Amino acid sequence: MKPGTPNVKTPISAPYGAGGSASPLTYTALSRRNRVSIAILPFALAIILGYFTYLAHRHDTPLGDTPATVDNRVAKLPVMGYNTWNAYHCDIDEDLILETAQLMASLSLADAGYTYVNIDDCYSERRRNVDGDIVEDATKFPSGMKALTDKIHGLGLKAGIYSDSGWFTCQLYPGSYQNEARDAKRFLDWGFDYLKYDNCAVPFDNITRENIMGRYERMANTIADLSQLSGKPPLILSMCQWGREQGWTWARRYGQSWRTTDDIDPNWQSITKILNQNSFYTWATDFYGHNDMDILEVGNGPLTYEEAKSHFTAWALMKSPLLIGTDLPSATKETLEILTNPEIIAIHQDPVVGTSIAPFRWGINPDWVSNNTHPAQYWSGESENGTVFMLLNTLDEPADMFFRLTESPWIRAGRQYSVRDLWTHTDNGTAVRNFTAHAVPPHGVVALLLQDAGDEPEGLWPPCAVLEWCMSANGTRFDQ
Fold it and tell me: I want to staple 299 with a disulfide (CB 3.0 to 4.6 A). Which of 66, 157, 170, 335 is the partner?
């Protein structure tokens, strides 16, 4: 039953003769009115119930909640693709974009699931044209955006563009505030499928009379209206508001992803800081709406191979959008192997379970303690094919990492589980009650898929994996 739907129960009929079956019935004016009221009541209830059910289905949200303007036909699963910013910043042009799209196909990135080629800031002229439209930079994009998106689509890929909810973009190109309808139509006419929407150049309060949520609502409503008018799928709206005003509590009303932190940098300290912050609101991610932990830095900066694996694993298992941000022509074999790990991507793109993994034990710190250097180390979550575990060694030296299976809420007591390593791609026997990953490298990760393998062996002692209030049928406690 949908929340808010009236709980109509079938009335209990009185037994025959209740109230004096032998007594003659007296038809007064009052009794006739009562009989008419009783006859009408079921129809009135049916109409009211039908109306509320219609509202609930119409908005696909609990009654009383603000209706979502987002059209849920797009981005059920987190987006995978490429974004130009981390690798190139403003140094972009149509040749680079097209080369990137071609490499996504030839390097099998598209086959792995990376299907969006997204252009970030700095693609336009500094001023709108005389008609008020954003215009692509004639030097950088001489063929025009429509010709470029046609070529991208011709490769079987999709195309993304960038704008801002303020007067200007973060690099001071035209933003979309008060031009939402004009710009959304422009992007759609250019052939784009996706819009990254930033949070710079905020107008004065006495102009907006609204907060970040309100500025994003303007574009979200415009996208929904344009989709309805055009009959085309709506632009995917990627909200780049850097975690301000707790977007994880409201942003799914308007877009398909929302940034949760400040910008990422290509170093381990940035990775652990973002991971730490996101550990406290993993609950916000599910189908059609995802915490965005920012563009991937795999292949960039001083990140080691183990750090890049940890970075990619966390972003993928936490269901963040996966947007490659490295220079593909110079990408190493190791970088491509990390980015295309099929078993990690299968969890990220799970069609049955849309939720993120979450910490079940912090490890170095007491549970629920924020630490940007040593975030939570022990994580688990559901998947279509079993329980997923992520073990993260935040230390600067190798470490053995031990956990009891039932520390995860997704593991059943009294059962044993087969263990699949999602990085070595090996089946590693059966775990009974406990598991230890030995010599996890500094800043390294272990990703596991555990599948139920039947009852655990008989005769194990103690009789409960968790001793708290473990008791026999005769009342004997085993935790004292």
Answer: 335
